[in-house]
Amino acid sequence: MSGKIATKLSELGLNLPDAPAPAANYVPWVVIGDLVFVSGQISQDTSGPLRGKLGAEVSLDEGVEAARACALSLLAQVKAACDGDLDRLVRVVKLTGFVNSTPDFTDQPKVVNGASDLLVEILGDAGRHTRSAVSAASLPLGVQVEIEGIFQIG
């Protein structure tokens, strides 16, 4: 992996995972013009899905880390959509974050900040984006977080 974004990831001690394969009947990304629409990426790491419910057995800090994992998977999908050249990424346009949480949990925005903050840390102003952060009663595989995104490429 080479390039500006790869260098920044390396400086931060981060590695992009392989772009996760779809788990059902959908494609991981679609390019239309200069936009890449990336399907929801679930919270997972090298050991597998990061499961649990915020406001119950999962702490806010764990949820933030789960959202960071989603952000790395989103970037991996953008890289795949750009034929391996992540430096074609111009900016993050929008994220929609879903947080598996109890009815009384209200810190969904703080959880999804894990992804937002990481993208800004990696990309600078190009990582700033519009966003929604909502609660979900349940998510696929019981994961903590799922995030989808729209990205501009050049």
From TrEMBL:
Descriptive protein name: Enamine deaminase RidA (YjgF/YER057c/UK114 family)
Location of the Endoribonuclease L-PSP/chorismate mutase-like domain: 8-142
SUPFAM superfamilies: YjgF-like (SSF55298)
Origin superkingdom: Bacteria
One Pfam family per UniProt: YjgF_endoribonc
